[in-house]
Amino acid sequence: MFFERLDQGYQKGTIDPKLEIELNKKMSKAMAEIRKEIKSGQCFYCGKSVDSFCNSHNIPRFCLRNIGSDGEVVGPNAILGLPKMGVSMGKENLGINESGTFSLICRECDSVLFQDYENPSNYELDKKPSQKMLAQIALKNYLKFIYKRKLEIALLEHSVKQLPNNDPVYALTREEFATKLKVSKLDLGTYTSDYERAKKAVEFGKGPGYYMFYYRKLDYVTPIAIQAPITVSIDLEGNIVNDVFNLRPGFHPYDLHLCVLPLESETAIILFVENEDVRYRKFRKQFGKLDEESKLGLINYLIFLYTEDYFMAKEIHNKIDLQILNETVNRMPVIWNTSPIKDTKMLGVKFNLSNWPSIPNLLSEEYKLR
Ligand SMILES: [Zn+2]
Hints:
Shape: globular
Bound molecules: zinc ion
Strand content: 5-15%
Strand order of the largest sheet: 7-10-9-8-11
Oligomer: single chain
Number of helices: 12
Number of strands: 11
Helix content: 25-40%
């Protein structure tokens, strides 16, 4: 969780073990305090006061169960190897109950808002995800990301308060914290307006709606589950899709929603964008020209290049050494520099999609769970 911001400078094996222990201690303490502070309040969706929020799952629980064993799945930190930092995402193996969860809405809302897309029977036979299901996915994606940013902002504010100037334990200067805070708040604003649009679509079927440009059901179960919005920077021909280094107020990145949902004996893969969005037009065309196996390969690459919201089956260890993915996952966006990178050339190198065949394709039949 929020590793994409806080892991800066902490690469696997580069951190002094003593420092790591200290860092874990400080972070765990801070997280415990923050969690207590934000444990109760008003449901972000309906506004009702609650004593404790629902432990909502971003990736539906039934999908995680379909790849879990002994009630556990493998998290991204099995690849990243970052310090635990007192967050569940710091673990290599996570209980399904703590995998990709957020606490922002009440139980009632959680039980009704997502029920269409969380119903396995809606993926049976020739059924295709409905507009409503897509809106529910978008809504949940943004709730999760709003929660992440809120937690991150609380933690940054907490850390700034605690931090004597240039505390080496955090290896971050006050200035860096301030920049991170600014970026997190900008992000929160963006996610909130995306959430509002999804909310209207869920409630009233209003707004531009969503365009599902890819839906495929595999007749096997993949060892990986994911549900996340990603902000694609560069398309397959090197054109800019979203200039993520552009922090100008008013700039609004557009997301591609990516889902790999393992079912009992199949897997549903869904890619969609907002209907009115023209930024993905070229990307969609390029994607459409790929053969079926390459499409899966590219989706697989997008997962590791852009997200940290995936979970894998433990059996994956028998098939590949996860470290092979380390280089790809370490290309996460770095946008909180005090002088934001404007160099589009660098953006092109970092997010070059032509490397997709270089990593194992966990969506291919070769790696199927069953
Ligand atoms: Zn509610």
